[in-house]
Amino acid sequence: MTELPVSAVNQRLYDYLEELPPGRDPYWGASSHPDVVEFVWDRLGAVLPAEARRLFKQRPVLCHPTSGRVLAIPWGTAYAIWLAPGCWEEAADYSTAQTWSSGRITDLAEALGDPGWRFGRLRLEQERDWLAKSFAEL
To answer: How much is the pTM?
Structure first.
């Protein structure tokens, strides 16, 4: 699997994520639940070209192969999707923040400095549509 190089559009995400050792199985060793990786890569990613599946700091992501923009990433037992501004109104009920079982909160907009990030909600068809629209806008 090809590693996505860091670019200006992903610098904050790159800085935020811990580097994982190379050579790990992306489904089982990438700091995310394998079911989440499967959902992001195989189910959400079905609407994107095969080259959209990449590794970023050894983590599975969906990206725009030309711009390098990460569009979706498994995040522990959840996942995050990046939406272009044209999708924000439709995704108004999607949160940029996730409260984990430990009580810790991750706010993607704050941590990554980009209001396009949302935590997914397992709404496959709707989220696929948004990813396809976001991909097309890049």
So the answer is: 0.95
